[in-house]
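Regression test case RT-17, inverse folding.

Input:
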């Protein structure tokens, strides 16, 4: 008998297939907000007219712009952005960019609500492994316009990197989930190919680890299987023709669906857990962590969940094939890295990665039980 609990998040709307500038005006009108603080990609702000067009359309409702969020969302940059948002008396945050910017804005919401004014103050609001801190609920919320397809805009969790420890720490609150997400395929034409395709594999990873979890359920399966099918067809189409807007839209909707398991309580596994460490400790881009880890995690897990892995292979159009092999070939076909060596992580780091990965939320919930660092190292050696 299935049992579980699905919590519907604090998102009002997802708007797709519309230009972001047009949809943003409608969202600000709907919410009655008048002081929008933009947190945006520095590249888009400096090298394209995208952000200037949004500022122009918003007019006096644009209260300020922050465009200096580094990858992996370091604490210091979060505090700087929060200070600017506080100074301009923002009543909504609008993000236009990738996952680090989206997570940064989630963190800024908590910083504003809980009077966080220094990087060390973030200790007061970060989620621990025990009881969650007592948090003042955010009142300044977020509208997200993602330019990559990792899917973080659909969650109520932010990952923020502690520069001192090089550990990515979680911030959680139900109201960190954006009020609205706008999926604009035209805007994604500015995203570098490697970033689009690799974050697409991050979305594939959400689908796959959700389907293969010991705690999978039909609600999450329905979304993840459809999302995986859409992504596995659309990503090669974007690779073949970067101007294929229909394929880009399918990638964005597939990514939205990929978050179904996690949003409904299904845990991720070792690919995500090890990926946290590779990102925070070694600066490996989010998408690349999934490219190099996911097939090896699947192979290591197969003895525990072969039936679930068969669903993955079938959803990707290869019934009766080994899911690890299917994913390996798919990722290679997109021209993405497939080994730790290719992202400059050597065996001399494996012991440290293994110990740190055990402290992530996901490695202990991997479908094949991981009892200690030695087993994480087995997976790393498969991915070497």
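Golden output:
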């Amino acid at each position: 008998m299935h049992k579980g609990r699905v919590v519907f998040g604090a998102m009002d709307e997802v708007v797709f297939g519309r230009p972001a500038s047009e949809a943003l005006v409608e969202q600000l009108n709907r919410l009655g907000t008048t002081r929008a603080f933009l947190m945006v990609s520095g590249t888009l702000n400096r090298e394209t007219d995208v952000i200037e067009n949004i500022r122009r359309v918003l007019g006096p409702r644009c209260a300020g712009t922050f465009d200096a969020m580094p990858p992996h969302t370091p604490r210091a940059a979060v505090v700087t952005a929060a200070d600017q948002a506080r100074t301009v008396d923002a009543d909504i945050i609008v993000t236009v960019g990738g996952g680090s910017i989206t997570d940064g804005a989630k963190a800024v919401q908590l910083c504003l609500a809980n009077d966080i004014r220094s990087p060390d103050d973030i200790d007061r609001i970060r989620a621990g492994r025990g009881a969650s801190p007592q948090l003042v609920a955010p009142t300044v919320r977020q509208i997200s316009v993602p330019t990559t397809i990792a899917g973080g805009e659909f969650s109520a969790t932010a990952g923020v990197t502690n520069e001192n420890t090089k550990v990515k720490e979680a911030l959680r609150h139900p109201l960190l989930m954006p009020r609205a997400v706008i999926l604009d395929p035209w805007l994604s034409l500015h995203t570098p190919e490697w970033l689009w395709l690799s974050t697409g594999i991050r979305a594939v990873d959400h689908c796959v680890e959700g389907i293969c979890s010991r705690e999978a359920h039909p609600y999450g399966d329905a979304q993840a299987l459809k999302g995986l099918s859409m992504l596995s067809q659309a990503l090669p189409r974007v690779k073949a023709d970067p101007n294929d807007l229909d394929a880009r839209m399918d990638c964005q909707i597939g990514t939205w669906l990929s978050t179904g398991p996690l949003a409904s309580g299904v845990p991720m596994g070792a690919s995500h857990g090890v990926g946290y460490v590779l990102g925070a400790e070694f600066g490996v881009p989010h998408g690349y962590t999934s490219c190099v880890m996911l097939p090896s995690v699947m192979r290591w897990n197969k003895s525990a969940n072969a039936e679930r892995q068969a669903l993955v292979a079938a959803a990707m159009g290869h019934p009766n094939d080994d899911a690890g092999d299917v994913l390996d070939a798919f990722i290679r076909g997109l021209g993405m890295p497939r080994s730790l060596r290719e992202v400059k992580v050597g065996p001399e780091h494996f012991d440290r990665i293994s110990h740190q990965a055990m402290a992530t939320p996901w490695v202990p919930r991997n479908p094949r039980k991981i009892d200690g660092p030695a087993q994480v190292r087995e997976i790393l050696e498969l991915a070497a």
